[in-house]
TrEMBL record:
GO terms for molecular function: ATP binding. SUPFAM superfamilies: P-loop containing nucleoside triphosphate hydrolases. It comes from the Bacteria. This is ABC transporter ATP-binding protein. The keyword Nucleus does not apply. CDD domains: ABC_MJ0796_LolCDE_FtsE. Belongs to the ABC transporter superfamily. PROSITE patterns: ABC_TRANSPORTER_1, ABC_TRANSPORTER_2. It holds the Pfam family ABC_tran. Keywords: ATP-binding, Nucleotide-binding, Transport. Residues 5-232 form the ABC transporter domain.
Length: 232
C-alpha cells in the first residue's frame, strides 16, 4: 500500500539565478490515511509553498509528488484540478467565503463544480453545516457571522464532498482564542472520524495538539515526531 501523500525530494525555487529563493529544498515526507499532522515553521520557512504542492495548486521545480498513488507531475492542469477537487478540502486563514452568498450557498458552490445534483447538494451542505454547529445559521451571509462562524462555514465547505484529505493553512490565524479552540476541536473530530488532517501553523501551542508534528525551517524538514502525550 502506498501512502496517501508521498513527497520525494521536492525543491521549489523562485526566481532561479542570482536572486533565487529555495522555498523548498529537497523535502521528502509521507503521510498515511487517517493521520493528524501539523506542519510548523516560522514565517517564510516554506509552509504555504509546501501546502500549495500538497494541494496540487502549484508544481515543484524538481522532485515527485504522489497523491493517493498518482504521480501528480504527470497530470495535465485539468487532471490536477480533478484530483484536487476529489481528494482535498482546503481551509484558509482568510476563510475565502463569497460575501453575497449564504452559508448554505457557499458550501454548495464546490459541489456545483463537481456536478453534484441539487437535492444531493442541499443534503450534503446541510449535513456538513450541522457537523460544524451552524444548523441555525445556514441562511446567513458571511457579514452576518463572527470570524469563528465564518471559518466554520469554510470548514463545512471543505468537508461537504467528503474528501479524504483536509488541508488547512493557518486556519485559526485570524481568530480569537475561543474561536480557535472551537475550530481545532472540529478538526480533531474530523480526524477521529477518519479524515486525514494536515494543519499548517506557526503556533507551537496548536502544533502540540496534533498527533504528528513536522517542523520546517528555511525550506528543509528539521523535525518529524509523534506527540505521544496528545489525547483525543
Ligand atoms: N511567488 C514567489 N516568488 C518569490 N519568492 C516567493 C514566492 N512565494 C514565496 N516566496 C518565498 O519563499 C519563501 C517561503 O514562503 P512561504 O509563503 O512558503 O512561507 P510561509 O512559511 O508560508 O510563511 P508565512 O508563515 O509568513 O505564511 C519565502 O522566503 C518567500 O519570500
Ligand atoms: Mg504561509
Amino acid at each position: 500500500m502506498s501512502a496517501l501523500v508521498e513527497v520525494k525530494d521536492i525543491c521549489k525555487i523562485y526566481n532561479p539565478g542570482e536572486n533565487e529563493v529555495r522555498a523548498l529544498d529537497h523535502v521528502s515526507l509521507s503521510i498515511e490515511t487517517g493521520e493528524f499532522v501539523a506542519i510548523i515553521g516560522q514565517s517564510g520557512s516554506g509552509k504555504s509553498t509546501l501546502m500549495n504542492m500538497l494541494g496540487c495548486l502549484d508544481t515543484p521545480t524538481s522532485g515527485t509528488y504522489f497523491l493517493n498513488g498518482q504521480d501528480v507531475s504527470t497530470l495535465t492542469d485539468d487532471e490536477q484540478s480533478d484530483i484536487r477537487n476529489k481528494e482535498i478540502g482546503f481551509i484558509f486563514q482568510g476563510f475565502n467565503l463569497i460575501s453575497n452568498l449564504t452559508a448554505r450557498e457557499n458550501v454548495e458552490l464546490p459541489l456545483i463544480y463537481r456536478g453534484v445534483p441539487k437535492k444531493e447538494r442541499e443534503r450534503l451542505s446541510e449535513e456538513s453545516l450541522k457537523i460544524v454547529g451552524l444548523a441555525h445559521r445556514m441562511d446567513h451571509k458571511p457579514n452576518e457571522m463572527s470570524g469563528g462562524q465564518q471559518q466554520r462555514v469554510a470548514i463545512a465547505r471543505a468537508i461537504a464532498a467528503k474528501p479524504p484529505v483536509i488541508l488547512a493553512d493557518e486556519p485559526t490565524g485570524n481568530l480569537d482564542s475561543g474561536s480557535s479552540k472551537e475550530i481545532l476541536q472540529i478538526l480533531k473530530e474530523l480526524y477521529k472520524g477518519g479524515r486525514t488532517v494536515i494543519l499548517i501553523t506557526h503556533d507551537n501551542g496548536i502544533a502540540a495538539q496534533a498527533k504528528r508534528v513536522i517542523r520546517i525551517m528555511d525550506g528543509h524538514i528539521v523535525e518529524d515526531y509523534i506527540n505521544e502525550d496528545v489525547v483525543f
